[in-house]
Each structure stands twice: as structure tokens, then as C-alpha cells.
Design a protein that fits this description.
The protein is of the alpha/beta class. It has 15 helices and 11 strands. Strands 4-3-2-1-5-6-7 form a 7-stranded parallel β-sheet, with helices on both faces. The chain has a 4-stranded mixed β-sheet with strand order 9-8-10-11, with helices on one face. The radius of gyration is 20 Å and the shape is globular.
Length: 392
């Protein structure tokens, strides 16, 4: 039986992970959970899985959770960053599912690696911000980083049994989001509700907005660079509206290997959870006879500048990806709050990156350097948001 610690248990990835654990109780036991402030859902999860320890965002959320739980429920309740790190490094866990959204997932993921835990990684920001540091630490600790994102899981599966030195390029597929057919001049007028209507996937707000702007794909390019030890320019993006081919690997001999499946996150989550085994019928089967067409075309970087900016930051390296990510998180949060427009997001990010270049950024030597770059990007983006808000 594999014992799991789940970071971000009340988000979409965490919920799917626990659903799979519930379906296969003979194979998985949940030992620790970390959530934000959704005490009601966490209460239900505790009553179902009976973990040894849980953590929430702050003391107020911990107090509320304690009031909701029956005294018979013997679970240690922690909070804050120390609590998240404790859940990540919980002694009885064999695998840590890292599914906290955004930069907040970096420190708990590194705590899991330091504790010698294998990591099922859904938090792409960890590698975007600190890929070199994270992968080196994983190597030193003998830890496996198992990708959860459908695209990276696809690449991981395509590379199995193949010599990585024979890879010519990696091809990440993207649905194109809800605006793939919208004219460029209309993008500036899209509403939050429209941006949240993803055609193929059900995700949280932040990831859905990133998908609509193609920033999600840009972050995945940087993540793939570290996961698979490739150069940024070996990683390409193709729009594939059907989301059936989740990604591809092209080899030096011209062969291309692809992984196919329905757009259902339970399938890549299950593979990371059960690796190297596979869970029987973890997700719905793909019926190829119903696939009339599969389309592929290159992304329009003029319509979706966030992808271009992510490539720029990935090529620059150093702390630039951390700055990119911090600025994006602030801009997306302010778009969701209604303070800026959809196309203000890339404008703000581009301005922040332009301001950072003269500072001659170097490769971060430690996590503190990464966090400082992230904070710098957030401060600059927040200042620009104020200007954009006053303008409108």
C-alpha cells in the first residue's frame, strides 16, 4: 500500500487524487492533507480518509476546522507555511502530491524532496521558479519527480525506454483555450466569465485564466525544460483543439511518439500515483472511432503574447522565470478581481520583464534568491496594476 500526502487537497487536482484513492483503498492510504481555507470540504475529506495530520492557510482557518470536526476525529491540525512543510515531509508518506496552485507550492515541494519523498508534481510553478535548484536537490536526495500535468505525463510516457539523447524535440499540445477563434481586436473586451469557459478541461480559476491567455502553456514549456533536461528551443507548442493527443516526442530518426486519451485529469493523476504500475480503468477510455478529425496548427504569438514572454524568460534563464511567474500571478488575480482587462495581463508582464533585464539577473544560488525575484516581480506588477486601474 502506498501512503500519500496531498498538498492542495481541496483544489481540482487534489479532489481527483482523493477520488482515486477512495476508488482503490487497497492501494492507497491518505496520511496527510494540506488545504487553503475551505474548511467545509476539508472536514469531509478528513471524515472520509482519517489522515494523521492536516494543515490550513492560517490560525483562523485552523480554529474553524477544529470547531467543525467531531472530537472523535483524532487528527493534528496545523497551519501556515510551517504546517504545509510538515504535511509535505510527513514521516509516514511514501509519495507527496504537490497540487498547491502558484508560487505557494515551492517551499512545501522542496520540503518533501529534502525529506526524501517522491513527488507527484502538479505545481508547475515550482520548476518554473526554481527548476535548477529543485532538480539538483531531487538528484542529491534520490527522489523521483513524477509529472501530473497531462502534457508532461504524456512526454514522460513517450520517453519511457528511449534514449533521451536521441530526442530531437518535444511537442506540447494546447487546446487554444476559449478564445482560439476570437479576433485579436476582440480579446481586450473579453469578460471573466468568458475566460473561465474552457472548452475541454475543468480547472481552478487561476489555471483556467492562464490557459485562456496561453501563459499556462508557456509555464509548461519552462517546466518541461527542467523535467526532461531539454533546451527551451527543443520544446515547441502546437494548438490541438480536440485535446486528444496530450503531447508528443520527436526522435532523431524522424519517428514521433504520442500519448492519447480523453481530456480527463484522473488519467495522468492515476499514473503518477501508481507509477510504475497503472490503475485499471482510472479514467474513461478513448473511442478512436468517434474521432472524425484531429487538428494541429501553430500558436499565434501576436494574439497570445504570454507564450512569447514565457519563451523569452525561459531562454534568459536565471531568475527571469520567477519574475515572470510572480508578475503573472498578480496580474491574473487583478483580472479576476475586475481591476484590469484581459489583455492588460501580458502588457503588465512584458513591462515587468523589461524593467528586470537591466538589473543583470543571475542564476539564483538558493531558494531565498528565487523568492526575492518573485517578490520583485509582484511588487512591479502591483504598481503597474494601480496605473492600469486609474487609466480605466
Amino acid at each position: 500500500m502506498k501512503k500519500l500526502s496531498v498538498l492542495g487537497c481541496t483544489g481540482s487536482i487534489g479532489i481527483n487524487c482523493l477520488a482515486l484513492a477512495g476508488r482503490f483503498p487497497e492501494q492507497f492510504r491518505i496520511t496527510a492533507l494540506a488545504a487553503g481555507s475551505n474548511a467545509d470540504l476539508l472536514k469531509s475529506q478528513i471524515e472520509t480518509f482519517h489522515p494523521e495530520v492536516v494543515s490550513v492557510i492560517d490560525a483562523e482557518a485552523a480554529k474553524r476546522l477544529k470547531c467543525l470536526l467531531s472530537p472523535r476525529e483524532r487528527v493534528e491540525i496545523l497551519h501556515g507555511s510551517a504546517g504545509y512543510n510538515a504535511v509535505a515531509a510527513h514521516p509516514s508518506a511514501d509519495l507527496v502530491v504537490s497540487a498547491i496552485v502558484g508560487a505557494a507550492g515551492l517551499l512545501p515541494t522542496m520540503a518533501a524532496i529534502r525529506a526524501g519523498k517522491d513527488v507527484a508534481l502538479a505545481n508547475k510553478e515550482t520548476l518554473v521558479m526554481a527548476g535548477s535548484l529543485v532538480m539538483e536537490l531531487a538528484r542529491l536526495r534520490g527522489v523521483r519527480i513524477l509529472p501530473v500535468d497531462s502534457e508532461h505525463s504524456a512526454i514522460f510516457q513517450c520517453l519511457a525506454g528511449n534514449d533521451k539523447s536521441s530526442v530531437r524535440r518535444i511537442i506540447l499540445t494546447a487546446s487554444g483555450g476559449p478564445f482560439r477563434e476570437l479576433k485579436a481586436e476582440d480579446l481586450k473586451n473579453v469578460t471573466l466569465g468568458e475566460a473561465l469557459r474552457h472548452p475541454n478541461w475543468t480547472m481552478g480559476k487561476k489555471v483556467t485564466i492562464d490557459s485562456a491567455s496561453l501563459m499556462n502553456k508557456g509555464l509548461e514549456v519552462i517546466e518541461a525544460r527542467w523535467l526532461f533536461d531539454m533546451q527551451i528551443d527543443q520544446i515547441e507548442v502546437l494548438i490541438h483543439p480536440q485535446s486528444i493527443i496530450h503531447s508528443m516526442v520527436e526522435f532523431d530518426d524522424g519517428a514521433i511518439m504520442a500519448q492519447l486519451g480523453v481530456p480527463d485529469m484522473k488519467i495522468p493523476i492515476a499514473y503518477a500515483m501508481s507509477y510504475p504500475a497503472r490503475l485499471k480503468e482510472a479514467g474513461p477510455a478513448l473511442e478512436l472511432r468517434q474521432m472524425a478529425t484531429m487538428e494541429f496548427y501553430p500558436p499565434d504569438l501576436d494574439r497570445h503574447p504570454n507564450l512569447r514572454l514565457a519563451y523569452q524568460a525561459g531562454r534568459a534563464g536565471g531568475a527571469m522565470p520567477a519574475v515572470l511567474n510572480g508578475a503573472n500571478e498578480v496580474a491574473v488575480e487583478d483580472f479576476i478581481a475586475g481591476r484590469i482587462g484581459f489583455m492588460d495581463i501580458p502588457s503588465i508582464i512584458e513591462s515587468v520583464l523589461a524593467r528586470y533585464i537591466p538589473l543583470n539577473p543571475v542564476e539564483p544560488l538558493n531558494v531565498d534568491d528565487v523568492i526575492e525575484a518573485d517578490k520583485w516581480g509582484r511588487r512591479e506588477a502591483a504598481a503597474l496594476v494601480m496605473k492600469y486601474s486609474r487609466r480605466s
